[in-house]
Amino acid sequence: MVQTHTYQEIKRQPETWRQTIGMALSRADEVKQTFAALQPEEVIFTGCGTSYYVSIAAAAAFQEKTGLPAWSVPASEVFLNPGSVFSKKRKTILVGCSRSGNTTEVVRAIEFARQNKLAHCFAITTRPSSQLADKADTVFHLSHVQENSVVMTGSFTNMLLAAQLLAGILPGDEAYLGELKRLPEIGEDVIARVESLAKDIGKDRNFSHYIYLGMGAQFGLANEGMLKLKEMTQLFSETFNPLEFRHGPISVLDEKCRVILLSSQSIRPYERDVVDDVRKFGANALVIGDRLEDFQCDIKIELNSGLTDLARGVLYLPFLQLLAYYRTLDLGLNPDRPRNLDKVVLLKN
Amino acid sequence: MVQTHTYQEIKRQPETWRQTIGMALSRADEVKQTFAALQPEEVIFTGCGTSYYVSIAAAAAFQEKTGLPAWSVPASEVFLNPGSVFSKKRKTILVGCSRSGNTTEVVRAIEFARQNKLAHCFAITTRPSSQLADKADTVFHLSHVQENSVVMTGSFTNMLLAAQLLAGILPGDEAYLGELKRLPEIGEDVIARVESLAKDIGKDRNFSHYIYLGMGAQFGLANEGMLKLKEMTQLFSETFNPLEFRHGPISVLDEKCRVILLSSQSIRPYERDVVDDVRKFGANALVIGDRLEDFQCDIKIELNSGLTDLARGVLYLPFLQLLAYYRTLDLGLNPDRPRNLDKVVLLKN
C-alpha cells in the first residue's frame, strides 16, 4: 500500500490528541482568567467546511458543560450577515477554527468582529504563524498537527478536542476532563479494531448513496463523515439529524443507500425506530456507537469506550475517515489529491 | 393536465398570503402586549422538515428586525438535547411551526418547554384544532391554508410570512410591514411569469444532481427548494451556504449538476465568484434573484420585486415548487403521493 499523507494523518491521531490535551491543560489557568475577566454571555463558534463542522460539535459540548449559550455559524455569515449573528446587547466570545489559519472567511470574520467591537476573539489553529493567530486575542496553537493532505482528518479531531477541553476547563469539570484524557489510549484501541472493517466496507460496491445521521454534537461529526466521503470520492452523500430524516428525505431510500447512524446512547429508542424504517425501505443500516447490544441493524461498529456521548465524539472519526479512504482507493482515486479542491480557500473579493 | 392538489396549492399562494397578512395585523396589538409583558431575551424557532426550514428563514429575519437574538433548531433537539438548546439564565420564547399541529416532535418540544418552565410557547399552525394549538400560550392560526397534498407548499410560505409579520409588528417596523403587504400582488405577477420557465426546466433531463445555494434567510429557502425536489422525485439534491460550498462539496461538480443559487442582493460579488467556479467545473448555473442584470450564468430568473433580501423570501418559492412539480410529472410520478412519506410524522415512543 502506498503510504499516503491522508493515511498517516488518520492513523497518528491518538498521539496528536495526547499533545492537544497537554497543550490545553497547560493553558488552563490562563484561559480561566481570560473568561472570568470577560464575563461573556454567549460563545459563537465559527469556521468553514470541516472547521464549521468542528464548530457544530464544539458548541453543543460547550453549552452543556459551561451553561453559557453557545452556537455555531459558517464564517461567511459572521461578516456578511452580522445582524443575524451578533446581538449588541451581549458580551460575546467568537471562537474561530481553521487548520491553516489563513482561510479568508475565518480571518475576515475575526477582523470584522474586532473592528466592530462585537466580540473577544479566540482562535484554534494548527498554524501559529497565520493571519488568524495574529489577529485573535487568545489562541490555542495545535502546532503538533501539521497536515500535508488536502482533506482534513487529524485537524478535525484535534480542533474539536481542543474546544471540548476548553469546555471542561472553564467550569472545572474534572469528570469530563478525565474522560477526555482517556481518549488517546482508547483511540489507539479503536483504530486497531476498526481498520479492517473500514477496509472491507470501503471495498463494498453495492451502495452509491451514503446517508450520515447524527444528533446534537454528533450532527457535526456526521457532517464531517459525509464531507470526507464526498470530497475524496464524489459519491452522493448527505447528512441529517436522524429524526429530521423522516420529515421528507426518507423518500430517497432504496437498496442503493447505505445509512450510517452515529448513535447517541441517550436517544437509543428513537434511533431504533429510525433504523427500523431504514431497513423497511430496503436500505442498509450501519450503526456506530459505544455499545450496541441488541440493536437490529446490518453492521455494528462498537467503540466500547465507556465514555459519555459528549466525550467520545472524536472516536467516531477514525472509522469514518478510513471508510472514505478505502472507498477512494477502491475507486482508483488519489486520497491526497481530491478533485476540484485546494488546501486553503482564499476569496478574491 | 390533471389538477393535482399540489398544483392548486402552489398556485393559490398569493391569495393565502393576503389572508395571512390580515390575520397577523389584526393580532398586532395583542402580540406586542404579550412580548412587552414577557420581555424575552431570546427567541428560538423550531419545527420539523419543511417547518424547520421555515424556522431557519424566520430566525434570520426576526433577529435582524427585532434585535432579539433568534435562532432555529429541529424540534427533536428541543426535548432530546435541551441542555444545548435552552439557557436557564434567559427568558425565552419558543416558536413552534407545524402545518398539522400534530407532528409528535413539535408537540413534544412545546410540552417539554412548558413543563420545565423553559419558555413561553408561541405556535404557528394551519390547524386550530390541534395539539400544538391547544398546548401553546399564543397561536397564529392559518386556518385558511388547508393542504391536501403530502408535500407542503403554501403552508411553508404562509408560516414564514406569519413569522416575518411578527418580526415587523414587534418593533413597529412599518417599512418592513409595507414590503410584506406588497407580496400578494407581486406574487401573482411572479407566478404568471415563472411558470412556463419552471415547466421547461422541469422537463430538462440533462441533470441528475441538483444543488441549492442560499445564505442567511435564503439558506432556509434553499433547503425548502431542495426538499421539494427530493421528496417528489428522489433525485439527488443538496443545499449549501454558497461560500461553504467551496470548502469541500464543490468537488462533486460535473456536467450532470445543476446549481440553483438563491441570490441575495447584498452579497452579489461573492455570488459571482461562486457561479464562476460552478461553470469552470462544467456544471449548469441557474440563478434566481431580484434583479440579475449582467450576472453571468446559464439561466436567470428575475423576481423584479424591488423588495429587500429579508422581505421577498416567499417569492423564491413558487418557481422552486413548480420546478419540482414539473420534474415530477416528467418522471411519470404522482406529485400528491411521494414515495415513503406520510402527511404527518408521528413517533411511536
Topology (SSEs and partners):
The structure is a homodimer of 349-residue chains.
Chain A: H1 5-11, H2 13-26, H3 28-38, E1 42-47, H4 50-66, E2 70-74, H5 75-80, E3 92-98, H6 104-115, E4 120-125, H7 131-135, E5 138-141, H8 154-169, H9 174-181, H10 183-202, E6 209-213, H11 217-233, E7 236-240, E8 257-262, H12 268-280, E9 284-289, E10 299-302, H13 317-330
Parallel strand pairs in A: 1-2, 1-3, 3-4, 4-5, 6-7, 6-8, 8-9, 9-10
Structure report:
- The first copy, chain A, has 349 residues and is of the alpha/beta class.
- The first copy, chain A, folds into two domains: 5-181, Rossmann fold, CATH 3.40.50.10490; 184-330, Glucose-6-phosphate isomerase like protein, domain 1 (Rossmann fold, 3-Layer(aba) Sandwich), CATH 3.40.50.10490.
- Helices cover 46% and strands 15% of the residues of chain A.
- Chain A is built from 13 helices and ten strands.
- Chain A has a five-stranded parallel β-sheet with strand order 2-1-3-4-5, sandwiched between helices. In chain A, strands 7-6-8-9-10 form a five-stranded parallel β-sheet, with helices on both faces.
- In chain A, helix 2 (13-26) runs parallel beside helix 8, helix 4 (50-66) runs antiparallel to helix 11 and helix 11 (217-233) runs parallel beside helix 13 (317-330).
- The longest helix of chain A has 20 residues, at 183-202.
- At the A-B interface, helix 4, strand 2, helix 5, helix 11 and helix 12 of A face helix 4, strand 2, helix 5, helix 11 and helix 12 of B.
- Chains A, B: One of its GO terms (biological process) is carbohydrate derivative metabolic process.
- Chains A, B: This is SIS domain-containing protein.
